[in-house]
Design a protein that fits this description.
The chain has about 140 residues and is of the alpha/beta class. It is about 50% helix and about 15% strand. The chain has a single domain, classed as Rossmann fold (3-Layer(aba) Sandwich), CATH 3.40.50.
């Protein structure tokens, strides 16, 4: 993601963070070319849990703010030439582009920066447990 255009303000949505294999490694990499970095999303309690769990740098104060307000406020006050919001879905794209942030899907960001995405983890046992009552009715 570093294209030599200078420092960036870099924010991740919770859904993007959850797609990363190692958020700590991603933040350590991004700190080399980001002036400000952190998670911006609506669930501040979940943000705090993830920041604590992975010992992430969190430059954005989310207390009392939803992601719409936070992105708007940071957009107006950030001095970096670029503001990038890494997300995983259409809602993330809508909110970021509304306030003139560049939007990058986490899959694209990972590919460009060499970050590893988490493998989709499915629990085949969960499906069997959910279908078990139906199967017993059909017997």
């Amino acid at each position: 993601m570093n294209d030599g255009t200078g420092a960036v303000t870099l924010a991740f949505s919770l859904s993007a963070i959850e797609r990363l294999e190692d958020p700590t490694e991603v933040f350590e990499d991004a700190e080399h070319w980001s002036e400000s970095i952190g998670i911006i999303d609506g669930d501040t309690a979940r943000i705090q849990r993830i920041v604590t769990e992975y010992d992430l740098r969190q430059d954005f104060d989310m207390q009392g703010r939803d992601k719409w307000f936070a992105l708007e406020e940071i957009s107006e006050t950030a001095t970096t030439p670029r503001k990038i919001y890494v997300g995983a879905g259409d809602e993330d794209m809508r909110v970021s582009t509304m306030f003139d942030w560049e939007y990058v899907r986490v899959t694209e960001a990972a590919e460009k920066a060499g970050w590893t995405l988490a493998e989709t983890r499915s629990d085949p046992g969960a499906v069997d447990r959910l279908l078990a009552p139906l199967r017993s009715l059909l017997r």
